[in-house]
What does this fold into?
Amino acid sequence: MLKGIGASQGYGIGRAVVIKDCNLDYKYVKYAGPEEEKAKLHRAVDAFVEETKALAQNLKQNAGDKEAEILEGHLVMLQDPFMLAQMEESIDNGMTAEAGVDTVCSMFIDMFSGVDDELTRQRASDIRDIKDSLLRILLGVKTVDIASVPKNSVLIAKDFTPSMTSQINRENVSAIITEVGGVTSHSAILARAMGIPAVLSVVGVTERICDGDTLIADGFKGKVFTSPSQSELEEYSQKQQAYLKEKESLNEYFGKPTVTKNGTVKKVYGNIGKAEDAQNVVQNGGEGIGLFRTEFLFMDREHQPTEDEQLEAYSTVAKAMDNKEVIIRTLDIGGDKAIDYLCIEREENPFLGYRAIRYCLDNKELYKTQLRAILRAAQYGNIKIMLPLVTTVEEVKQAKALIKECCQELEDEGLRYREVPVGVMIETPSAALISDLLAKEAAFFSIGTNDLTGYTMAVDRGNAKVSYLYDVTQPAVLRAIEMTIKNAKAAGIPVGMCGEAAADERLIPKLLEWGLDEFSVSPSSILQTRKNICLND
Ligand code: PEP
Ligand code: MG
It folds into this structure.
């Protein structure tokens, strides 16, 4: 049995599909002479063309023409005689086919990525894709097509990027296991959003498990059973049935208002990481979106999303929620959320460093692009803006001034937009301690217990050695929460919670007693949280 962290509830039983990082190192490949290397190159190009055509066809049927066009563009680029001629010339000069592909593609990548124009920079990332595919084919490295794994697959990877998770078909994947990440890592957040059981931080799991192994993943206790016995398989399949039955029984809370035993009306919202997750919130009976983590839009790509791309994502969510509240948190990067193309320098203490609102207020153009997109999307629904990692009143004032500036620009440009309420996330001890002052500037509060717990207890959220201190029920954290709720109430502004603690059954009686208005949880926890609230005073 392997031990990890239970990061998304449920039991998964199935066969392992191990997704290994591609090793595209070709230094050991020996030069076989110009003719053989060129023949190898052409075979690889033919295979690439065939593979890409099939993929494009598949995408046309399942995703849409736009995605397929990108792949068809790859074919045009590679078939450019100049590019191929350069590769052949490198081979004539004594390089292997692999080295020729790498050298020529890298030269184009450098050339395109230094250019200001967005479309040209996009070509650099296209060529990077072509290079990786050609090297993979030349080196015979196999990759896993995540979208088409068979039913009852248990996916295993070092970590899951947002683009990997977006390919997951929930019907076929019974669990996710990773080597890194904790309860609040993006793999965990995405797994919970999709309702897939997950065990994270299992040391060496990609090496210790082989493709096809039968596995049991316990997303509650963070256990992975390798080679399970017949009795273990029976025991867990019973547990799985019982859990699914209990989940089904929660359907009686679908579409019901969230009202406590003494008649106070509350709200249960969902947390999302990408636009498509809004559907999960609707399907699970969420009354709104309490946290849209917009950094996922910025991750796993070569350059920042444009204003129009962001507008598309935010307005999709606003429309899907049909005038229900949608709280969009502005970019929260830095700390454990790195984005390479933003080139943030490495820091000794990234969690205490240049991140979230600090970074955004110092990079106004990038921030304004996001704010403008949110303001424009607001015309399609009930959007609010939320500021992350606030520690001073000044930060809120500065952000609000920037939002005003964006409104004026949109007005001048004749673009439609709507002014929106601006709220503050309370996720630092400093924000909790000055919550009375912040309440004068904020339209609402949302308590981010994931960070608040870490910062209050002075403990790293992802460090296993001190994880015993990462505990939201510690009196210091509870006091910070209570103080925030009381100060919000005194100022007459609504207060919610969007950290994991909002779904913590142990805390719900206290949160209700203090008067928390809104609980924002993973889509898969919405009905359970509503039930817990309805059964309390
Ligand atoms: C939090 O800190 O509680 C929170 C919701 O934000 P994140 O987990 O994205 O840091
Ligand atoms: Mg946070």
